From TrEMBL:
Keyword field contains Chaperone: no
Keyword set, alphabetical order: Signal
Pfam families per record: PBP_GOBP
A GO molecular-function descriptor: odorant binding
Organism: Odontomachus monticola
Keyword Oxidoreductase: no
Signal peptide boundaries: 1-17
SUPFAM superfamilies from the UniProt entry: Insect pheromone/odorant-binding proteins
Domain of life: Eukaryota
Protein name in the entry: Pheromone binding protein 3
Matches recorded under InterPro entries: PBP/GOBP, PBP_GOBP_sf
Length: 152
């Protein structure tokens, strides 16, 4: 699970730092999430997130830095994750669809040849992280907190 999320963040950072144009970034994220570019593009457009934002977010996350824009960028990333989560049906508004999330994780585990004995661990983590955001009403915060929780 951590590996999958780390790969997602790495992919976003990679496409941003390698000078991949906007459409390339959309395409890379779409391929990773098994969505179409037409499904992903509105999420980028809605958040107004830029390659610079993604690079700064990755740097802040990796180095645990605080910058003037950190909260704004984190909010944009949370909104991007929420939008993508809704496209993957793991979120509805500010609620995590625990069963769908587990279904997707189980599928990823099979594709990545991760030991099946890890599934109960992943399921527990999803439950725990979903409980953490249960009372949060802002979907961007839900998505960002949920993903951070899954990564820790």
């Amino acid at each position: 699970m951590k590996l999958t999320l780390l790969l997602f963040f790495t992919l976003v950072t990679y496409v941003a730092t390698m000078g991949v144009e906007y459409e390339g970034m959309v395409e890379s994220i779409a391929n990773f999430l098994e969505l179409t570019k037409d499904e992903v593009r509105p999420c980028f457009n809605m958040t107004g997130i830029t390659q610079e934002d993604v690079m700064e977010f990755a740097q802040v996350k990796v180095d645990d830095l605080q910058t003037t824009n950190a909260n704004i960028i984190a909010s944009k990333m949370g909104c991007l994750m929420a939008c993508l989560g809704e496209k993957k049906e793991i979120m509805t508004d500010a609620r995590i669809n625990v069963d769908k999330t587990k279904e997707i994780i189980h599928s990823m585990v099979e594709k990545q040849n991760i030991r099946l004995s890890k599934l109960p661990e992943f399921d527990q983590k999803v439950d725990s992280c979903a409980n953490l955001v249960e009372t949060v009403t802002y979907k961007c915060e839900v998505a960002l907190t949920f993903v951070y929780c899954l990564c820790t």
